[in-house]
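Hi C.,

You asked whether I'd gotten around to modeling the 288-residue construct. I have! Everything is below, sequence then structure, no commentary in between.
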Amino acid sequence: MSEFELVWDSQSGVSECPTWDAANRRLLFCDIPGKKINALSVDTGARETWEFPEVVGSFGLCRSGQWVVAQRHRVVLFDPKLKRITRLTMPIEEPATNRLNDGKVGPDGAFWVGSMDENSPRQPLGSLYRVTADGKVEKRSEGYAVSNGLAWSPDGRIMYHSDSTAAIIQRWDFDPATGAMSNHRIIAKLSNEEGRPDGAAVDMDGNYWSAGPSAGCINCFSPEGKLLTKLAFPVPGPTMPAFAEGHMYVTSLREGKSAAQLEQFPALGGLFRCKAPAVGAPVSLFAD
């Protein structure tokens, strides 16, 4: 079994979206309620943090060196060197109780991002959008309480997505040239033992690695939805895995945990890693 180690005790409310920045040899991740993106150099251990005016639901890397960033109801471009935000989209029409959540750059060069309901209990008011470099926002799917788990197969021909509240993982056939989706299928309905599906990554064998925060584990599914592997995680609430430089990095959440859990697991909200159980698929870049 892979042994996880804590590499950044960030104490994030919800650390998410670990992303390998190969050009700069650093692992990036955000703190959603903390309104920030963090960077960890894998060579030197140096750390850097950028602050934002709104929640950071997710982000992706751009061909230009900028980042494409999901704020509460809009998507912006951010230059990490100049610390400059540029508007990409107009505010997206969403219920006031919704915010943008999990997002990733697809093999089509577009930023795909979903929304989630913040009501309790959560309602299926979220949608999944495709955002292009000209600022065009296209709704591609809807009816989710918590849109999550975006990832693509290594050849870009399969797109994965989950709804954390509904505990389902679904897939479409995907055209990496146009972003067209077809042949929708629900491939897994998760049990309490597997946990609700959160953020995800795909390996070079095409398997789908999904964080199961409610069960404290990382689940690996085949492209057809068969559970292949389950890794125990050292703290409750893993949120998303990412592959980088022979390791699997996993973010975690602190928000909403009890005082007893925080006392027992003081590293909640931190960034962890273990020896990679597989080789990750390449990270796509936004075509800005």
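If it helps when you're writing up: The radius of gyration is 17 Å.

Thanks,
B.
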